[in-house]
Amino acid sequence: MKNKFDYIKIVGGREFLINKQFFYVESGLRFFSLISLIFSIIFLPLTAFSYSLSSSRKIKSFHHRLLYIYLCLREINAGTLTNNLIITKSIKHALNNFKDKKIIFPMEGRNWEKSLVNYTNQLSGKSIGYIHCALTPNHLSLIEKGYYLNNEIPTLIITPSSMSSIVINKSFKGKNVRQGYFLRSELVNLFPKKASNFLLFGLTGNIRDSKEIMSYISRSKYKEDIKIRLNRNTSSFSSLKKYADRLNLKLLEKNSNDIPKVCFFRSSSLALEYLRLNVTPVYLDLNQIVSSNIFDLDNKFKCLSLRVNFDFDRSLDVILRKIVLTYPVVDGKKMADYYLDQSYNVADLEMPTNF
Questions:
Q1: DSSP annotation of 355
Q2: What per-residue confidence (pLDDT) applies to 193?
């Protein structure tokens, strides 16, 4: 961005009071607001659980009612509600300190985003929700109608591809939606040196899921043919790297330009990076309630899935035979840009003049 702007950082960590590059949103809280927030957090799990039990009565199916309560408890236990409350209170204080009520935020369908937009609208401000990630069935509030009140919808929504633009225009019908680009990338600027025959397993920062996948790989007959790619930008990287080393698994080097035979993925954006290089992506299915596979949204690209369970090796055998029998990917870049468009230049990235 050419314009001068304030960058509000929501994640604190060790450098909470050290790094002066960012305005940490929590530091905007006043003393009495902080004390009030602490007391709210103490009782939040109990009140949230009571609300979950009460609201579950509206669900007719007993199975779905139990599923709803389970998911609510998981959110409470993960600290999501507490985090949401801190962010919401802090952002309101931050907005009150800025004269120009114009905001850009990473739009993922979270509740704190809705609170942010709602409060900005109350202050007669404007907002841009930039969808920066690969949409998957997990982003239910973005891909389905009914999850947003009218005053929670940003002034402008920018999508990262034509596919996401189609999906978002359906769920936010009549709203200001513009097709943009996918700006986050690690592989797109790397020049591929050579094709290799190793199997790449691209994992996310989720410790439980990644450790489960690595444990199966460590017992697999394909272990020597597999390399693990961890997300170096997450706080869990160090822990997952130690776990991989303990299992004697091979890690993909940071600046490696070797191109794998197949990319087994949990992160859809990673799968599309390799698809862009004509590498076949295969989704790692952990039998979860909702898929994190971008290709499940429209099935335009027929993506295979590998079930990660006790039958890991046999399933992997089947997948590899199917890949050999099918035609190789020859126009991966075009397909990848359909899902996450990275075909842009600097001039394409200028801010809308009427915002």
A1: -
A2: 62
